[in-house]
Amino acid sequence: MWGLGLFFSVQITFMFGLQGLLMFAVPNAIGLALFGWLTQIVAKRHPGGNESLALFFEKFAKPFRLIFYIYQIVALSLTVFALVKYLFVPLLGTMPGFDGKAVLALAVTMSVFLLLAVGCLFGEEFGIRKIKVGHALLGALLVICITSVLISLAPAGVGSGINGLGGEHGYTMNRFWGLAIPLVVGLLVGPWLDLQHWQRAIQIHREKTSIRLSYVFGGLIFFFLLLFHGYVAMWVMGNASGTFETATSQLDELVYGHSIIVQHFSEGFSGNSWIPAAYFGFLVICILTTLDSGYVSIKWFLEKNVEKSENMLISIVPKQIITSPIPTFVIVAVITLIAYFARFELEYFMVFFASFFVGYAALAIARCFVPNSQQSLPQIRMFSMACLCLVVFAFGYMVDQNVLMYIGSLLPLAYVVWLVTTTDLLRLVTEKADEVMNAASEIPAIKAIAKTEQPAPKSEVAAPEGGYDHNVAGHFEGKWFVYSMIATYQDTNSVGNVYFGMYPLYVGKTRELFFNAAMPDFDLKTTKFYILTRSFEHKFVRETREFDTITVKIKVKDANRKFCTLEHQIFGSEGQLLGKGQQSLLFVSSKDYGLLDIPPEVYSAFMKYM
What we know:
Layout: H1 3-45, H2 52-60, H3 65-93, H4 101-125, H5 131-153, H6 173-189, H7 195-206, H8 211-239, E1 247-248, E2 255-256, H9 260-269, H10 274-308, H11 312-316, H12 319-322, H13 326-341, H14 346-356, H15 358-369, H16 379-399, H17 402-441, H18 444-453, E3 475-477, E4 480-486, H19 502-518, E5 529-540, E6 549-559, E7 564-571, E8 577-589, E9 595-596, H20 600-606
Helix pairs in contact: 1-3, 1-6, 1-8, 1-14, 2-7, 3-4, 3-10, 3-13, 3-14, 4-10, 4-13, 5-10, 6-17, 9-10, 14-16, 15-17, 16-17
């Protein structure tokens, strides 16, 4: 139970009573159930047995890595923010010695770091395999807390609280319908960007348990927790004596009542009553089981991505720092404190889930089930659309304009539909055009015309000009190392064109000459490391023939802690691109062939050619 579900269930009940609570709780439960139902289908469609979902997610998540990370930061920030602002601050306000602003600010800061420290401790103690045991124990304690609160409220019904207090504070049905569509959209697609859900679904599948049934059951649990909290809010509004302290935001002039239950029970808490302690325990348990799960999922996500990353910047920073969730939790603490001292409300975080993340989540669903949507993700366009929708929705929320809120939530969905369908159409047209061109190219007359009149495609990296004069050891053109040779009879096959297996040999020869030029002091007899080929890939573009000049260009493309990637391009006599590709290198000890980090002398030699 994250902060949005926990405290917005009180606010929406405060605004619209039971109808508002159901409008919030039902899409929450359905969204979780649909996530489990559909990921079960994804797991069955892909090969790999119990690891099929994990293998799918590894490829699926690559273009969404930054959004997954941002989503998790926002989710954890609003969770800590909600508990601090709507539980700790009202409670501290009733205690002697906390009436000063400086003391309260210090207490809030300490509360934020206390919550995150406990979340880190729980997350470090329980991994994904053991976290269900810890949550089961906390769940049993949660049931005791909920039962105690319900028994104490049993003699009285909710009374007039079923209608909420929104009418007394300017909330109308116009605001209700303005929130309804964005909430339904955001809650139905939201789980698809949540790392916690993906990690759980993958682990459930590994343990040969039904993801579908697990999430249907989990959705019901979530639904009843929301109903419980909303019921308590209705009871307090219908039975508590006196008035509630509400907050009026200076940004939107709306009235917020997230802490009405806490205010009611804080009076009993000062008298050491068990019932308020049970309610506050309910809040703390709900938050902690989100923070520890967030810690586990972030650690899992970072370790996965750092392990496979070939980015050189990542290789410079110690792996223990990059893969640790601690820096992320520090970011969460900073965001939480800024939001608190800026007097934000929980709904300002909710705007992201109703607009900014909607397009990414919808595209994530499409990439799971629509084959053509597996094309390269248009990052800049998606980010621009997300920011546009965020601003439009936020403005509509501030000025109470439903049309703008609808546009902010529905425009990302429309854009994703357009993106997927137009990509599909382009793919079909391209495939058919390729088929027609390939068929036409076999017609003798067209083949002859193409051979004599078609200009050769040029590459962005030009081949060397002139005839056959060149440095026998190769030379550098900027960051590219260049070596030329002439194809002879032994390089060709039975039909006269250069045999496909010769191109990797050309690249290999050029690579060795590049090493010799970049590291002239390297001595095979005294070296402490060897350079081995980890992988090699090449795309054939055109063919060439005997006595054509073959020019190979090679440079360093990227490097990380362990591996270095070289990029190559091959050209013919007329500067036409014959092929291109890349290879990955690894470094091992010359004594025992143990895997090494890239040696410093290699770094210093290669850096100038990146």
